[in-house]
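Field log, afternoon session.

UNIT: design team B
ACTIVITY: writing a sequence onto a fixed backbone
BACKBONE:
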């Protein structure tokens, strides 16, 4: 049997196209934003450097261009539609992020607007109301699933946004989640690259995007992605979870994100922008991060991480990565249990 090279070619292009676009485009974006005075101050550095904002615009452009190229190369009309839906949903979240970066949307309006990102998936029917669970296999949750479906963009997008607080933190943690999804997809669906797999396409697009972005956002950051970047990236995880039928796997892989967002929302009893809440951390004299001890401050993952003592920003991000890696291991175990359950019931 002749090897079908088209899937491999598409996977390679899906990864390297956004990588190249960001490596070429981001330096121009950084210079442009600084020239226009669109920058943020990195408060975790002694020098308080001015960092170019809205780097997420280049991420969004890279995802759109790569998605269009992928659609052109794919033969199957149904797969073309799926990639288009992925692109549209992520773009909706990215546009909301751009609006938020410019006009500062309220903490209630932003997640509400993100609900519209799920409309393309719902309208196209690109989902299954039968999530797969460990020990159980395929389930039927028609009503419950449809009730939760509108939140598939809003919840992960906001969760990623809430953890995007340090140089490189969003990029590295989400890269680990994507790698987890890649291996989980291989386990659950026994993917062997012989046929085109949409989940792999989405994962490669986002991996190429985030690896390139990390080079500009790692410590010390040259650009901040802003809400444009974090909402775009978070939305992609929601789309992958639903269209890839890996909902439970993605939820478990994102436990650090969920812990952080749940801690913030539950402790302040509602949705508020960061600027509206007391700061949970402060900088020491030697420029390490420590807890403020303010009872009015939200409970955050970084606040829990520095409970034992001050940490350098890079060490905080390393701890985030370790926690995400551990949750990824549990997600892989979950995928194995799902595969076993599906094999028993099929």
């Amino acid at each position: 049997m002749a090897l079908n090279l088209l899937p491999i070619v598409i996977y390679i292009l899906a990864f390297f196209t956004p990588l190249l676009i960001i490596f070429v485009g981001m330096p121009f974006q950084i210079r442009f934003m600084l020239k226009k005075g669109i920058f943020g101050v990195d408060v975790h550095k002694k020098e308080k450097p001015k960092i170019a904002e809205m780097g997420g615009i280049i991420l969004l452009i890279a995802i759109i261009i790569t998605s269009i190229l992928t659609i052109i190369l794919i033969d199957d009309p149904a797969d073309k539609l799926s990639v288009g839906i992925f692109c549209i949903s992520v773009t909706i979240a990215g546009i909301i992020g751009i609006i938020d970066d410019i006009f500062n949307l309220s903490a209630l309006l932003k997640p509400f607007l993100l609900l519209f990102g799920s409309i393309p998936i719902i309208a196209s029917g690109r989902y299954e109301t039968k999530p797969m669970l460990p020990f159980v296999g395929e389930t039927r949750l028609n009503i419950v699933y449809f009730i939760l479906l509108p939140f598939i963009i809003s919840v992960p997008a906001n969760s990623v946004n809430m953890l995007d607080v340090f140089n490189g933190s969003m990029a590295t943690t989400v890269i680990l989640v994507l790698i987890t999804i890649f291996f989980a997809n291989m386990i659950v669906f026994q993917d062997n690259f012989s046929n085109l797999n949409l989940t792999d396409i989405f994962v490669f697009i986002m991996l190429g995007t985030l690896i390139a972005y990390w080079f500009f956002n790692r410590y010390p950051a040259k650009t901040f992605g802003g809400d444009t970047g974090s909402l775009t990236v978070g939305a992609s995880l929601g789309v992958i979870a639903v269209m890839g039928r890996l909902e439970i796997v993605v939820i478990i892989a994102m436990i650090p994100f969920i812990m952080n967002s749940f801690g913030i929302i539950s402790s302040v009893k509602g949705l508020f922008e960061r600027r509206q809440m007391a700061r949970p951390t402060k900088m020491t004299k030697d420029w390490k991060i420590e807890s403020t001890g303010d009872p009015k401050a939200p409970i955050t993952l970084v606040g829990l991480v520095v409970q034992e003592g001050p940490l350098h920003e890079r060490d905080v991000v390393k701890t985030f990565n370790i926690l995400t890696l551990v949750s990824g291991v549990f997600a892989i175990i979950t995928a194995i249990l799902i595969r076993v359950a599906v094999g028993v019931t099929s």
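LOG NOTE: The first helix runs from residue 6 to 35.
NEXT ACTIVITY: expression trials, pending approval
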